[in-house]
């Protein structure tokens, strides 16, 4: 049996845009389930999502809270002007669903079919070469992409947490152990004492 947070998450658009004030759809779902967030904070979901959430949690529907943004009329996807792209990789780090491909110092490209339209890649681009354009009619409807975006976001989170753990492990291996540090201090003190003896000073 699914939890309330899971059922709320199932109703959310899964763009992972963070406009609700949470770092993704699942954290927002958990906040709504816990009564810490209101049902009207998701601009990509708009009035339809507010109504579905109201129905699920048993409260009257209300208008979308404009403090979190406004509902877009039509879905969009990001497009990179590849001639201007300097390959800085910042958009890749910002994309919550891994929809951008490209290596450092190489031109980058958005895989339109995987782009959730979240716009999180726009602010970090130092040369402003990413634009939002209408989602091509040839692409699947956004409603049918929710599971794909959720899966890609979950995989990305897991990868980032593995990378963070690997960085911590590497730092730990590089850092001298307490015993080694203590040995270093003892050696330093012994050298100081020997020098003092040689020069006739007190130890
Ligand atoms: S689509 Fe964006 S605003 Fe809506 S719940 Fe997900 S992260 Fe929050
Ligand atoms: S390419 Fe940009 S707009 Fe599309 S999902 Fe990634 S960050 Fe969001
Ligand atoms: S942030 Fe802009 S310049 Fe940097 S790789 Fe992405 S598109 Fe290219």
Largest sheet: 2 strands, antiparallel
* Secondary structural class: mainly alpha
**Roughly how many Å is the radius of gyration?**
26 Å
**Small molecules (ligands, ions, cofactors) in the structure:** iron/sulfur cluster
Give the N-terminus to C-terminus distance in angstroms.
73 Å
**Number of structurally distinct domains:** 2
> Mean pLDDT score, rounded?
92
| Beta-strand residue fraction | 5-15%
Task: Please give the number of β-strands.
Answer: 4
Outline the low-pLDDT stretches: none
Q: Tell me the name of the CATH class of the largest domain.
A: Alpha Beta
Q: How many DSSP helices?
A: 6
Which H/E pattern describes the elements? HHHEHEEEHH
Q: Identify the CATH architecture of the largest domain.
A: 2-Layer Sandwich
| Strands side by side in the biggest sheet | 1-4
